């Protein structure tokens, strides 16, 4: 058993326990009674304090151990405890029903600072277990409906259609709108490839246009220049949490009779003119991938105010099968359903979305505080005219000549940091669809994304800023 090296008898002397801790190199001993029941925990810190208080090495440990210790029945529960205690606890013993130690779990989140990490500390586990125990683990079950209702309501939109991921959400939306061969769909040059791929799946032709210098979002003037008689739709992407200029884009769409399909995969909860993103498009698409604002592992949703499109998407999502006549297929559909298990997590995440956005915002503000003191780094713009951005990843621009070295140095220091998306126009498979894109190229070469996990505490942000500052200005770079 791998926990043997951590176990000491309650009659052991302090010296014996110190030897045990010294041998196991975990900084901790589990103290058991004569029946092998776990009765206490002693950390090297507990012993240090005992010795400073005058305890002798030959005294038995039981007077000095911690009897009010934390333990868990299984690793899942242990992970929940780590999260609740914000990873301040380092080791949690696992016990069986007799309080016998069966194993232990170490907190492995201390070293590496991930770019993104879901926080699953509300009802996620309870709802997931409930769905699991109900045996409704496929795509029928109460959580799918509840998640659709709660998330669409959050967006201020009437209907939600939950799907397997954000990419198929975009595809489903375009198919439901009848977009296909011969049609053109306008997309921004800076986005994740799924946006343009969804257009290509339908047989339509994507048209890639440049972005705005201040918001990094699709440029409405460039949209207007790209419109032809074949243009059917625009996909504005609210990039890195920044909402597009929905006022201008809606005007253009109305003037030219075009559909707007919003790609909200990176901006759950962002607003334009006090209205949430997702409420501007005829259909709007969200992703709930593990690194997004809220997550279901894999997952997505189309939201719409149109009852007709809602019905249509439900049929298309479910093999194109008639809702009235089982196994009668009205259209060529897809299997794009979300499972009840995923929706259970999604519902719990939606309950906490405001709280999640708040801590993200707090982290973003802490970066802003520190970065304002560094020359040569500028954070993504906040409060641009009517826009209320949310903090997804922290996004900033630095000198393009130094960008890749900065990223490498951060990664060497166990901090996950990424470069911005490569412009679509710079990739072989997409460049034939691109119009002139100058700003996207420039921004993409300067952009970095930094962690916004709940472990990204002030100390981590300080460390990141010291590394960046040293790389940009050579101070302390030894
Ligand atoms: C993540 C993302 C998607 C795709 O979502 P998946 O759930 O990963 O399929 C689409 N568009 C943008 C802008 C994204 O960031």
- Quote the average pLDDT: 94
Helix content: 25-40%
Strand order of the largest sheet: 6-14-13-10-9-7-8
What is the rounded distance between the termini?
A: 45 Å
Radius of gyration: 27 Å
Task: Give the DSSP E fraction (strand runs of 2 or more residues).
Answer: 15-25%
Give the strand tally: 19
Describe, in plain words, how this protein is organized in 3D.
The chain is 36% helix and 17% strand. With 478 residues, it is α/β, with parallel strands linked by helices. A seven-stranded mixed beta sheet has the order 6-14-13-10-9-7-8, sandwiched between helices. A four-stranded antiparallel beta sheet has the order 15-17-19-18. It is globular. Pyridoxal-5'-phosphate is lined by residues 165-167, 191-192, 194-195, 237, 263, 265-266, 287, 289, 300.
List the helices and strands and how they pair.
Layout: E1 7-9, H1 14-24, E2 28-32, E3 38-43, H2 44-52, H3 75-84, E4 91-95, E5 101-106, H4 124-134, H5 142-155, E6 159-163, H6 166-176, E7 184-188, H7 194-201, E8 205-209, H8 220-226, E9 231-234, H9 246-256, E10 259-263, E11 271-272, E12 275-276, E13 283-287, E14 300-304, H10 307-317, H11 340-351, H12 353-371, E15 377-379, E16 387-388, E17 394-398, H13 400-412, E18 418-419, H14 439-446, E19 447-450, H15 458-473
Parallel strand pairs: 1-2, 7-8, 7-9, 9-10, 10-13
Antiparallel strand pairs: 2-3, 4-5, 6-14, 11-12, 11-16, 13-14, 15-17, 17-19, 18-19
Helix pairs in contact: 4-11, 5-11, 6-7, 6-10, 12-15, 13-15
Bound molecules: pyridoxal-5'-phosphate.
């Amino acid at each position: 058993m791998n926990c043997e090296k951590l176990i000491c008898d309650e009659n052991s002397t302090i010296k014996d326990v110190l030897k045990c801790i010294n041998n196991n190199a975990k900084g901790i001993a589990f103290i058991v009674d004569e029946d092998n029941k776990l009765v206490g925990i002693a950390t090297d810190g507990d012993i240090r304090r005992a010795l400073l208080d005058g305890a002798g090495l030959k005294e038995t440990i039981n007077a000095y151990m911690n009897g009010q210790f934390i333990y868990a029945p299984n690793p899942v529960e242990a992970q929940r405890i780590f999260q609740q205690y914000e990873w301040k606890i380092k080791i949690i013993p696992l016990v069986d029903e007799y309080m016998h130690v069966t194993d232990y779990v170490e907190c492995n989140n201390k070293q590496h600072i991930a770019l993104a990490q879901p926080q699953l500390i509300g009802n996620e586990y309870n709802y997931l277990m409930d769905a699991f125990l109900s045996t409704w683990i496929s795509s029928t079950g109460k959580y799918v409906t509840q998640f659709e209702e709660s998330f669409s309501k959050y967006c201020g939109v009437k209907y939600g259609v939950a799907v397997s991921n954000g990419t198929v959400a975009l595809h489903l939306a375009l198919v439901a709108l009848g977009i296909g061969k011969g049609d053109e769909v306008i997309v921004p040059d800076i986005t994740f490839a799924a946006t343009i791929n969804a257009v290509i799946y339908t047989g339509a032709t994507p048209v890639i246009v440049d972005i705005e210098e201040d918001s990094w979002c699709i440029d409405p003037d460039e949209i207007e220049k790209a419109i032809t008689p074949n243009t059917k739709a625009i996909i504005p992407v609210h990039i890195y949490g920044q909402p597009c200029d929905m006022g201008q884009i809606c005007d253009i769409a109305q003037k030219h009779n075009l559909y707007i399909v919003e790609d909200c995969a990176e901006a759950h909860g962002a607003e334009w003119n006090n209205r949430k993103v997702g409420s501007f498009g005829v259909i709007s698409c969200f992703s709930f991938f593990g690194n997004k604002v809220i997550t279901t592992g894999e997952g997505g949703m189309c939201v719409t105010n149109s009852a007709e499109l809602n019905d249509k998407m439900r049929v298309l999502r479910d093999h194109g099968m008639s809702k009235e006549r089982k196994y009668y297929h009205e259209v060529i559909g897809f299997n794009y359903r979300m499972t009840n298990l995923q929706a259970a997590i999604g519902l719990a995440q939606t309950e906490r979305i405001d709280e999640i956005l708040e801590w993200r915002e707090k982290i973003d503000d802490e970066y802003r505080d520190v970065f304002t003191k560094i020359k040569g780094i500028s954070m993504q713009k906040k409060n641009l005219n009517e826009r209320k951005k949310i903090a997804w990843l922290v996004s900033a621009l630095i000198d393009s000549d130094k960008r890749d070295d900065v990223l490498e140095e951060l990664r060497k220091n166990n901090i996950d940091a990424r470069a911005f998306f490569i412009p679509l126009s710079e990739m072989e498979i997409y460049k034939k669809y691109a119009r002139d894109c100058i700003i996207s190229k420039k921004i993409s070469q300067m952009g970095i994304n930094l962690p916004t996990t709940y472990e990204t505490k002030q100390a981590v942000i300080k460390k990141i800023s010291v590394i960046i500052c040293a790389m940009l200005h050579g101070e302390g770079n030894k």
